[in-house]
């Protein structure tokens, strides 16, 4: 699978090592292509940082462009998860194991897997640094590093997860704790939080709330439960059409919503959660809980923060239209690590992968990128064990719906699409570089009018 040439032992090694050292010093390392055994550097036509949805999808697409052996993926984890399934895992409808595959099994054939963390960027020399101060050089770089969960920004976490009654669908370590807290619920407050930071899948903090409410109804515990959604936002959802539908559901199910409330501390020994009123900084309120679902603060990966490829906030700085870096034309970004002004979802990654494919194709041909990403993203809002509102929208927070029906209504068909069809699309089409979102089907279903 390796793309690197082999140098035979003997005096030639010393000569090549001297040439490599000179190349590093003058910044021309980008054109050398040697094995780890012969020197400290490897070269690939395309290097992909991150083995999540965006990284694997783009590595498959790039391998078809530049050939087997010329693409490398840098990813430290041995297991890859289909994270959209974790809503159903936390709600007891799916098993965690069904969301997992080995990283080795999803790396495209002919793509080199470098099992390491990214430690630093040197874009002026077309190099990145990984573990053991090893350097990898590239002609084109795709950054797909995802984002970082920051439980530690809430006082009392993550150690608080060692106590019962608290979970989070956002981490493989805590998603099953959500289901245990729900299953063991007796009576009291069931609290669901939304942090004062960007998050991936902004609908997920509500999805588990609706599943929990239905579960408590079905098990006869609803009359003894207060369902509370404490959100740092000032609205229930950013797109008015879907917000109106959700507010009606919230009213029907007698759910309490407290806007502009941000979780700042958990006291698990006392089953207390402390929230700050963002409209009155410094003012706090303590809530007792019988169940607490935490959506953690999130931010860019540490390696991006203060790097030469990041914006002031630490996110990868790319064009919102082409996904090409704003300063380095041979660097591109996809997914949660970017500063694209849209929701961070797997559906967004699918649409971005198609645009980025066209962008890189043009750049490789020394042409200006012509593709334009419209900000498409999707959030299947699970409102029950057999109901989903399929929210689809663009950069302008306007609905961009695929089906010629009102997607602002709860539908069982959309639940089955979420639970059964989307995992198949993910594993067998998106990760293999064949799914670029529903845009072509949208045009077909709307007779080319939308």
UniProtKB/TrEMBL annotation:
<keyword id="KW-0560">Oxidoreductase</keyword>
<feature type="domain" description="FAD/NAD(P)-binding">
    <location>
        <begin position="44"/>
        <end position="157"/>
    </location>
</feature>
<dbReference type="GO" id="GO:0070221">
    <property type="term" value="P:sulfide oxidation, using sulfide:quinone oxidoreductase"/>
</dbReference>
<keyword id="KW-0274">FAD</keyword>
<keyword id="KW-0809">Transit peptide</keyword>
<dbReference type="InterPro" id="IPR023753">
    <property type="entry name" value="FAD/NAD-binding_dom"/>
</dbReference>
<dbReference type="InterPro" id="IPR036188">
    <property type="entry name" value="FAD/NAD-bd_sf"/>
</dbReference>
<keyword id="KW-0285">Flavoprotein</keyword>
<comment type="similarity">
    <text>Belongs to the SQRD family.</text>
</comment>
<dbReference type="InterPro" id="IPR015904">
    <property type="entry name" value="Sulphide_quinone_reductase"/>
</dbReference>
<keyword id="KW-0874">Quinone</keyword>
<dbReference type="GO" id="GO:0005739">
    <property type="term" value="C:mitochondrion"/>
</dbReference>
<keyword id="KW-0496">Mitochondrion</keyword>
<protein>
    <recommendedName>
        <fullName>Sulfide:quinone oxidoreductase, mitochondrial</fullName>
        <ecNumber>1.8.5.8</ecNumber>
    </recommendedName>
</protein>
<dbReference type="GO" id="GO:0106436">
    <property type="term" value="F:glutathione-dependent sulfide quinone oxidoreductase activity"/>
</dbReference>
<dbReference type="GO" id="GO:0048038">
    <property type="term" value="F:quinone binding"/>
</dbReference>
<dbReference type="GO" id="GO:0071949">
    <property type="term" value="F:FAD binding"/>
</dbReference>
<dbReference type="GO" id="GO:0070224">
    <property type="term" value="F:sulfide:quinone oxidoreductase activity"/>
</dbReference>
<comment type="function">
    <text>Catalyzes the oxidation of hydrogen sulfide with the help of a quinone, such as ubiquinone-10, giving rise to thiosulfate and ultimately to sulfane (molecular sulfur) atoms. Requires an additional electron acceptor; can use sulfite, sulfide or cyanide (in vitro). It is believed the in vivo electron acceptor is glutathione.</text>
</comment>
<dbReference type="Pfam" id="PF07992">
    <property type="entry name" value="Pyr_redox_2"/>
</dbReference>
